[in-house]
Amino acid sequence: MLMILSGALPLTAQQADRPDAQTNPFADSAAAVAAGRALYQQTCEECHGGDAQGGRGPSLATGSFSHGSEDSDLFRTIRTGIPGTQMPSFSALPADNIWKIITWLRSLSAGSASAGETVPGDPVAGEATFWGKGGCGRCHEVNERGSVLGPDLSAVGKNPAQSLRSVILNPNAPASPGRRQLRPEAVRVTTRNGEVMTGIKRAEDNFTLILMDLNGKLRRLDRSEIVEEHSETKSLMPDNYGQVLSSAEIQNLVAYLKTLKARDLSKTVQATLPPGLTFERLRNARKEPQNWLTYWGNYQGDHFSSLARINPANVGRLQAHWAVQMPPGPLLEATPLVVDGVMYTTYTTSDAAGVYAIDARSGLVIWKYERRQKAINPYQSNPFNRGVAVLGGRVFFGTLDAAMVALDARTGRLLWETQVADTLQGYSITEAPLAIKKEVIVGVAGGEFGIRGFLDAYDAVTGRRLWRFYTVPRPGEPGSETWTGDSWKQGGGPTWMTGSYDPERDVLYWTVGNPGPDMNADVREGANLFTCSVLALDPDTGKLRWYYQFTPGDTHDWDANEDVVLADQTVAGTTRRRLLQADRNGLFYVLDRDNGRFVFAKPYVRQTWNGGFHPDGTPILLPNWKATPTGNIVSPTVIGGADWANPSYDRIHSKLYVVVTDSALGYRSVSQKYEAGRQYMGGRPFFLSGEEHRSGMKEIDTRTGAAKWVYSTFRGSMTAGVLATGGGLVFLATADGNLIALDAASGRALWHFQTGGTIASAPVSYAVDGRQYVAISAGNTLYSFALPD
């Protein structure tokens, strides 16, 4: 029932956050109504028509609005516009003028009075009718209870009672003049093989139809396979409630619906969702090469695809298959996930972050969720998001104002939101979370802001925090002796890249970034544990099992946040459990992942700070390796030998493909006062005139650390990554916008595509219906490539 009264279009999940402006200061002003009408005529009438009855844009005279019906929602929509539509931003319009326009719009309908109107009837009895005799829950949900076939009615009570009653009694009434019909479009199709199905359209174009059938299952159909398609003129909602329900029952039902003013997250967390992507599937992700189930493709950090249909013999015919343009904003850094034909990816804008669910075969958008930041640090310097995690029918992502969010994977509707830290203190979340068992692990960014880093685990169903491990110990805790005075309070240690997990031994591995301030060790003399380290943790408790520190007392911003690969390698006939990392400090490391014991390390780019290792694996530090007030020249640079550009590990051949930068940089320390929420670098790197700068990708034999071949690139990148495949290819992304396919055996370029945008992400590969695809983001566009049909 109530198919036309959803507060949002089917593709867009309702936002739960609110802008700065909350209350209309002119709500009761008759003068403001008159002024608002004049302002509307000057600003809005061209699109929305005279008296707001509709034109090129929808009618604004009904009291119900597609992007939120609260005064604060309307203010935000007018001020910021709606990205991807013809609705522009009116950010230059004075706030008082916006409020006056809203005051006039409210005067056109009962919308301004609907929130406070008194409605007779028994809401409790109405709720029983809704879930019982009325059968409304067979199509609709309220706070995740019910079906997702029809619109979410969790906030339907914002509509006037008379509108609710009218739709119950006459669901097939046409929309108001100039008003777009919000009722989801029902369709009945017959396919060539004789199958007949009825459902709600979720997305379509000339070639593909995606619908949700009456059982709530998403169905993807090629239009070439459809022999008959009939749009239902009638709503799927029963039109005989006036006969089957008494007038008292209808009044009680309206009274109940009027109590539903907002999505209640205390109830959504209690919902039972379909199983979706299970932990068992995640731990066996290698058995599903058609999917890309975690940020690294699997728990072990491989970032490798065993798919082999695209190979050196046919890659020259690879072509762009589809593209999706994201809202304008910072470069896309997300690595998309693919789960059973649906791709999930993220984006950021100047004040928001969002998630798309996309049909991985056609590129059609199934749903979109956007959340505006509740607070914005004006000194924020890394406004990016690297992706989502999926577990048990839920999609998880972090935000730049340091919150964790869970969505319903079927609809993009909000399930819970938990504030992790305070962005005004320098914290943010940029990495994709890691979902294991029944929890979601997430770290924080902010090493350049003097945060005290930590790693958190949250209950996947409720969002309740389960444990926290601080990467900078306080006095009295193990490792605190490596800090001077109170320097630990601003000690850094960010955890901003997704970790790895050994499901057989149940060990979580997570990497830690630089100490703070970045380049001045005078205020924090010592090794500064656990910065620039890898941690082995108990995933159930967060307790430390072991650690290894790659760069003690670092002054070069050499975060150790790079990917850690969990590899089982045969050495002298015995299987050894190894941990592999090409660290930012320019050395490739092999550790025993059972205990953290140092096995060996070897430079993979030029380095001038390490003179070897002591027997316990701690580095021998060369003279003049630290930043000083006068400056020292050190290799590698601040972007390291490698940064967070995703590497790729071919475990069959024990080869690691790494994006590298080979150069030197001057490191100069300066004295700097700590100010909360502002960058706390403590230094100024300087470039050297005439310094040779080499960039590219190396193939490293992980058994010896030796490089077999190098592919040089025109422009270096700390973000554009690499993907090796079972087809004998290595896909390399470059900052100048190229996606390049290399022969894994020789490093020779076989194919390339210029995307036209700066690439700051890594490719992934997946398959739908047996067809292999390669996807990557470039600029603000997500591309997917495939061989011709």
From TrEMBL:
InterPro entries assigned to the protein according to its UniProt record, in alphabetical order: Cyt_c-like_dom, Cyt_c-like_dom_sf, Haem-bd_dom_put, PQQ_b-propeller_rpt, PQQ_MeOH/EtOH_DH, PQQ_rpt_dom, Quinoprotein_ADH-like_sf
Enzyme Commission (EC) number: 1.1.2.-
Gene Ontology cellular-component annotations: membrane
Domain of life per record: Bacteria
Region of interest: Disordered: 48-68
Residue ranges of the TM segments: none
Record-annotated Cytochrome c domain positions: 31-109, 121-261
Keywords on record: Calcium, Disulfide bond, Heme, Iron, Metal-binding, Oxidoreductase, Signal
UniProt-listed Pfam families: Cytochrome_CBB3 (PF13442), PQQ (PF01011)
Keyword hit for Calcium: yes
Enzyme class per UniProt: oxidoreductase
Tagged with keyword Nucleotide-binding: no
GO terms assigned for molecular function: calcium ion binding; electron transfer activity; heme binding; oxidoreductase activity, acting on CH-OH group of donors
Cofactor: pyrroloquinoline quinone; Ca(2+)
Family under the similarity heading: Belongs to the bacterial PQQ dehydrogenase family.
Name of the featured protein: PQQ-dependent dehydrogenase, methanol/ethanol family
Species of origin: Paracidobacterium acidisoli
